[in-house]
Amino acid sequence: MPIAKRFSEIFPGPIELEKSKLYLIGFQNKNRCRKNTQKDAGMNAENYPEKSVRVEEDDTNSGTQKALKGKSILVTGGAGFIGSHLVDRLIQDNAVTVMDNFSSGKKGFLAQHFQNPNFRLIEEDLLDLAALEQAMPGKDMVFHLAANPDVKLGAENTRVHLEQNVLATYNCLEAMRKTGVRRIAFTSTSTTYGEAKVVPTPEDYGPLLPISLYGASKLCCEALISSYCHTFEMQSWIYRFANIVGERGTHGVLVDFIRKLRENPGELEILGSGKQRKSYLEVKDCVRAMIYAVENSHEEINLFNIGSRDSIDVTRIADIVAGRMGLSGVNYRYTGGVDGRGWKGDVLTMMLSIEKIERLGWTPEHGSAGAIEMAVDALLRA
């Protein structure tokens, strides 16, 4: 049976994904909605061949194919920062199950959905394969966001990213394989590129030589997903994120600066030299890109950078945070770090090329500075 035909049988008729870390399991088909709540070396774009696994397109009144509507979706990490925003969009047209162990996610991020009959919450850990196998049947797609996002932690605990990123992803893929779920969207990271010598960095850059254990773990996850797609006729969307910021942010430079300035409005400790320059994207822009890619890219493996067109250095970020907090004359104290880095594994310069997803039709609504301003305002309101 041709693969394309097999996908058309799995996703018959017009499909729509217009609205949307932990775990998100999604919208049931309307005849099986549930109402219960329960607890580039070797990896460049050339190694993601654009093959013949496609979702057959159906014409709609708008002339646009919609990938997810009336579907059952699993989102791992759905109670986290990005995951909860994704749930907000998906739940509008789908039945969504969130699977989360709440190691960093918050139930409060999902509270607005608790009374929605199309929402289901499973409080479990992805390291529990049996729990995943029980949650997976009937799902049309998995958005796999569950991970430990703390890049710095790998220098202190060398096992955490192996377990919470690599093994969790393996378990997710195994549960999919055993239950016949064939579509996965995975949130990877710009840190897979390491210290790229080409900036902005395109998806086909290589060799990929991460300098953090976090980046290495995400690259390993990409390889697992690629191999499962080829071996077991699955389909995937892999997103390499820039720095994502916004409402509900739980970690990162903005959360760190706000906390420090609340404790001491006269002085701000800045890790590294303050000259580290990276790109930032507002979280709703990010979710829009994730959904757009699934709607509009239908190869076997669909790999995209997601970020902004520009970058900003850490000192300028400090200026924005202090200004939005109404502070002036703040003394900046730089730690110097490791060769100007904030920590071991900190990439000094990062800006992704987003030309590939822009050719598909998505563009960011905000640049790095605008995203940071919006995020700081949202965090201060929280």
Rg for CA atoms: 20 Å
- CATH topology category name: Rossmann fold
Low-confidence stretches: 1-65
Overall spatial form: globular
Domain count, please report it.
1
- Strand proportion, as a percent range, falls in 15-25%
**Termini gap:** 53 Å
Structural account:
By secondary structure, the chain is of the alpha/beta class. The chain has a single domain, classed as NAD(P)-binding Rossmann-like Domain (Rossmann fold, 3-Layer(aba) Sandwich). The chain is 32% helix and 16% strand. Helix 4 runs parallel beside helix 5 and helix 8 packs across helix 10. The longest helix has 20 residues. The radius of gyration is 20 Å and the shape is globular. The termini are far apart.
Would you summarize the structure shown here?
By secondary structure, the protein is of the alpha/beta class.
How would the blueprint of this fold be written?
Blueprint: H1 3-10, E1 23-26, E2 72-76, H2 81-90, E3 95-99, E4 119-122, H3 129-135, E5 141-144, H4 160-179, E6 183-189, H5 213-232, E7 235-241, E8 243-245, H6 253-263, E9 267-270, E10 277-278, E11 280-282, H7 283-296, E12 301-306, E13 312-313, H8 314-324, E14 331-334, E15 349-350, H9 355-360, H10 368-381
Parallel strand pairs: 2-5, 3-4, 5-6, 6-7, 7-12, 8-11, 9-14, 10-15
Antiparallel strand pairs: 1-2, 1-3, 10-13
